[in-house]
Design brief:
This protein is mainly α. It is 84% helix and 0% strand. The protein has seven helices and no strands. Helix 2 runs antiparallel to helix 3 and helix 5 packs antiparallel against helix 6 (160-188). The longest helix is centred in the N-terminal third of the chain and has 30 residues, at 2-31. The protein is elongated and about 100 Å long. The termini are far apart.
């Protein structure tokens, strides 16, 4: 029940933020006035929209009871990054470098947790589990690399950085696409272990019935 209420909260926030963004867009088209206040409101609604999407992704995995640590951390980081983003948007004073970097880090980790949470919803057979492990490796490698760029990298010269990010992004996209397909195949593929177990159970039942039949025949004679 708690997980369901959590998903409802994020869903209502998503609907509300989209509605506010739509109203602002209509207002700009009709009245042609888009000042600083409207910009801040729009950025805030976009922040709420992103936070709601991340929360819904984590909440969906939390409902499956397949794991609690990852989605709970993802929800916490999504809310934390949203609060910090709101401070940046509405604060009259310019926030420091470390504050912004912390906000970017929280957002990055929230997105990674949400992505992995969505992929983890799929029920995969053993022969397809490699895709989940590969997704974990690719997502967390990219996350760690971006974390390094945010906090430590000062010189972005050379083209190896965008190439490395591009390769990992393609791998993640490919694994994200094939995971639902593997989930579908896992549901439709009969499990030989289950079939063998059912056959063995039926054999035992037949033996029991034959014994009962033999006993009845002996009693009748």
């Amino acid at each position: 029940m708690g997980n369901l209420n959590l998903r409802k909260i994020f869903l209502f926030l998503l609907i509300g933020s989209v509605a506010v963004s739509a109203l602002l867009g209509i207002g700009v088209i009709l009245f042609g006035d888009f000042g600083e206040l409207e910009t801040k409101i729009l950025l805030t609604t976009l922040t709420v929209t992103v936070t709601s999407l991340l929360g819904l992704a984590c909440g969906a995995y939390l409902e499956t009871e397949g794991g609690k640590f990852l989605p709970i951390v993802g929800i916490f980081l999504a809310i934390l990054s949203a609060v910090m983003a709101a401070v940046v948007i509405w604060s009259s004073s310019r926030e420091g470098e470390y504050f912004v970097k912390t906000m970017m880090t929280a957002t990055l980790l929230a997105v990674s947790c949400s992505h992995i949470s969505l992929l983890s919803i799929a029920h995969l057979e053993k022969k397809f589990l490699w895709s989940r492990y590969a997704a974990h490796a690719a997502v967390w490698t990219l996350t760690a690399f971006l974390f390094y760029l945010i906090w430590f990298e000062k010189d972005f010269a050379g083209d190896w950085i965008p190439r490395f990010i591009g390769v990992l992004s393609i791998i993640i996209a490919a694994l994200t696409i094939v995971t639902p397909l593997f989930h579908k195949l896992s549901r439709n593929t009969p499990k030989t272990e289950d079939i063998d177990a059912e056959i063995e159970r039926l054999k035992q039942r037949i033996e029991e019935l034959e014994k009962q039949k033999a006993e009845i025949s002996e009693n009748q004679t």
